Amino acid sequence: MTNKLPFVTKEMIDNITKTYPTPFHIYDEKGIRENAKAMKEAFSWNKGFKEYFAVKALPNPRILEIFKDYGFGCDCASANEITLALAAGMKQGDIMFSSNETPASEYKYAYESGAIINLDDITHIEFLEGIIGKLPETISIRYNPGGTITLSNGIMDNPGDAKYGFTTEQVYEGVKILMQKGVKNLGIHAFLASNTVTNDYYPQLAKQLFELAVDVKKKTGIHISFINLSGGIGIAYRPDQTPNDIKIIGEGVRKVYEQILVPEGMDDVSIFTESGRFMTGPYGELVTTAIHEKHTHKEYIGVDACAVNLMRPAMYGAYHHITVLGKENEPCDHMYDVVGSLCENNDKFAIDRMLPKIDIGDYIVIHDTGAHGYSMGYNYNGKMKSAELLLKEDGSVEMIRRAEEPKDYFATLDCTPYFKDLV
Ligand SMILES: *Cc1c(COP(=O)(O)O)cnc(C)c1O
Q1: pTM higher than 0.90 for the full model?
Q2: Tens of pLDDT along 378-414?
Q3: 284-295 and 299-303 beta bridge pairing
Q4: Are residues 212 and 302 in the same domain?
Q5: Where a domain ends, among 233, 262, 280?
Q6: Mutate which of 163, 230, 374 to test ligand 1's pocket (most atoms within 8 Å of Cβ)?
């Protein structure tokens, strides 16, 4: 069991809270950059490689701008996510639009923004053509082979149950229709398993997609231009997990590329990824303060954050590691439920967690909130979403999103005259 430590210290947070009260999410720019660089290097063997960061993981233009420095683009699923990418300076070809059940207006917006459209269903070929009057020159097909997928470490996922993508037969048919309609560059995309903490997922998926691309060529004569491995690379939320090694993953993909594509003369196929969790997950932390302790049937610590700030534990029972700042080296000899203030009994960041003795006023850091953390937030119980801070490489802190205020909560209603700001 490794000692999983946060990237912030009590001293840093004492300083930051002079300006920004808890709760807030804070992101580690240095960590994000080092990881992005490693990702880029791991796939540098592929000339056309491009990572399209999955915006839903951390939808903040300041973060998207960081990824631009590495030549990365954005993967978006809605018009608003495209707007965030545009706000970060993403240009023609920098946006992948991997949506499903897509409204016509959002397809139109994606097309006009120069995004590459990744079709989720064969019926969307006609749907899209009906909206924009033709098909774009570059387009992608989302593939779903069905069945289940099992990885070497036993992780299993169930594509057959997933609503996304074309079946194998539909891929062959779709490819033919698209080429007849004048498409020039065609890609295949698949997302078959989520949060895989193994270096085998991408290589296994790549093998399957490369074989499909070779089959498509043999059956239809059509050359696939790019293969999009999408998201799914996981992170070590638990201290006993071994983090993925992106270098090994990149080499694993290279090996199957050389085995399957190169001998077929397909050595110009570009590899795309749409990693989200892996790019930012470990580089975000939710910093909150213990404001109550309650001794009833269990020992509770009440904090000033709640599931509105981080929904994963409530929604999936997800584990997020917790550090009590300044008590990193104290024994974990107290068992607590660390809970938020929602009137929902699943609003628990940790259940029966062994932690050092917590005192009111202690800062509690909830780890690995850099992906699907802030972004999943909502406004249940009239609770407001927190600020987002960026810890820059020089140690300074920039607020990259202010906390919501009552006026934001009431913006879609007409009761503004009645609210008073809290003191
Ligand atoms: C969510 C999502 C991703 C990112 O997945 P991660 O597991 O965060 O890497 C990529 N592509 C699509 C289409 C997605 O829906």
Answers
A1: yes
A2: 999 999 999 999 999 999 999 999 999 998 999 999 8
A3: antiparallel
A4: no
A5: 280
A6: 230
